[in-house]
Specification:
Shape: elongated
Number of helices: 11
Largest sheet: 6 strands, antiparallel
Structural class: alpha+beta
Strand content: 15-25%
CATH superfamily of the largest domain: PPM-type phosphatase domain
Number of strands: 16
Radius of gyration: 28 Å
CATH architecture of the largest domain: 4-Layer Sandwich
């Protein structure tokens, strides 16, 4: 399938060959500009900046290699495909060394092969540009975060205020759903983070994340996490916001981003999407523990799932699980800091206690905070975060 509306510059001194290529590409939906020699082609390139150049290697006055050298001095991104006779493979090798994206051997018997090579080169160039833009955006974000981190080190309390501003400022009320949260930091700056936001008129997303470590360095990653989630949200909404959001894809994106950033930090996270039209919850685990607890008037139990931590393994994969929504329920998600403050001795006892507290009606942030005695704790060994999603 051709990428219609792209402009192709065809440079070839053989009029018959050139015009046959031009006619075929125009029929395929491309906008085609032609030049009969290298000098004219280079001048045309400077004027119109085409999306791709298709250039014969053997031409009088200025050959294809000279054109390629000049183009690469001006741009490393413009896709360049060389056309060569079968007997001049040394020139093809040199063209590839100079930065040509592909080559076609004359005579071109099947023009569909040429169209395929053009589409592949255009797609590769588009991906390269998008990756560069993303890297630049990430570098700008990291640079900005480094400056912010310096300020946070000077005044941890002021940094906490900044971090608190990134958290949701009020509960999310969406139809008959309500999402709320509470974070009790072990230091002024927390490595735990929560967020929730509307995706479109019938769905919203939420997540609870726990960054490895403590203090300013972990808080730094929560800022980056907020930046990445908002970037994904903007891109999603800019494309119409109609497609289903897959939490597993979001976790894979964050996993790659953290590894590329090289911050030496990883995240355990649980994230989900509520679709009120389909009456479903789709969620994914990124190493999160303890297991989220779902409670209905009939039953209180843990949501099962598994997944590797995010930002730790290059080959990490994540899975989506979709469940039907009960008419009335609460979903309680806690960071592992809660396990450090519960008085029970064994892990099983702590899990059973959490289930019993939620079963007895701790169905909102205030009630759960009080029931667990968190409002009385002055210092915690680890950050404690909770996110409660309720449907009434």
């Amino acid at each position: 399938m051709s990428l219609a509306s792209n402009t192709i510059l065809v440079i070839d001194d053989d009029t018959i060959v050139r015009e046959s290529i031009v006619a075929y590409l125009e029929d395929s939906g491309f906008r085609v500009i032609q030049a009969e020699n290298g000098e004219q082609g280079l001048a045309t390139y400077s004027e119109i900046s085409p999306d791709l150049i298709l250039c014969d290697l053997r031409m009088p006055r200025m050959d294809g290699l000279a054109v390629l050298r000049n183009v690469r001095e001006l741009s490393l991104d413009t896709p360049f495909i060389v056309v060569s006779g079968a007997g001049v493979m040394a020139d093809v090798v040199e063209a590839l060394r100079l930065g040509a994206n592909d080559y076609i051997i004359k005579p071109i018997v099947d023009l569909e092969v040429l169209e395929y090579a053009i589409n592949r080169a255009l797609e590769s160039a588009q991906l390269t540009v998008e990756n560069r833009r993303y890297r630049e955006s990430l570098e700008e974000a990291i640079k900005s975060l480094e400056n912010n981190l310096h300020l946070l080190k000077e005044d941890q309390k002021a940094g906490r205020q900044v971090q608190m501003r990134m958290l949701p400022q009020e509960p999310l009320c969406f139809e008959n759903f309500k999402v709320d949260h509470n974070i009790i930091p072990s230091l002024y700056l927390s490595g735990d983070f929560v967020d929730y936001f509307e995706l479109n008129e019938h769905s919203f997303a939420f997540y609870l994340a726990d960054v490895s470590g403590h203090g300013a360095s972990s808080a730094f990653v929560t800022v980056l996490l907020k930046h990445m989630s908002m970037q994904l949200l903007r891109e999603y909404q800019s494309h119409g916001g109609r497609a289903k959001v897959k939490p597993s894809h979001v976790l894979s994106f964050i996993n790659r981003s953290l590894l590329e950033a090289g911050l030496g930090k990883h995240i355990v996270v649980f994230g989900g999407v509520i679709d009120t039209r389909d009456e479903t919850l789709t969620y994914a685990f990124g190493g999160h523990y303890p297991l989220p607890i779902i409670s209905t008037p009939e039953k209180t139990s843990c949501i099962e799932g598994r997944g590797l931590p995010v930002g730790l393994f290059e080959d990490a994969s994540f899975q989506d699980v979709t469940i039907d929504l009960p008419k009335q329920f609460t979903l309680t998600i806690l960071s592992d800091g809660i396990l450090e403050v519960l008085p029970q001795q064994t892990l099983q006892e702590k899990e059973d206690y959490l289930l019993s507290v939620i079963r007895e009606g701790a169905d909102n942030v205030s009630a759960l905070t009080e029931k667990l005695g968190l409002h009385k704790i002055k210092e915690t060994p680890d950050d404690v975060a909770m996110l409660i999603l309720a449907r009434s």
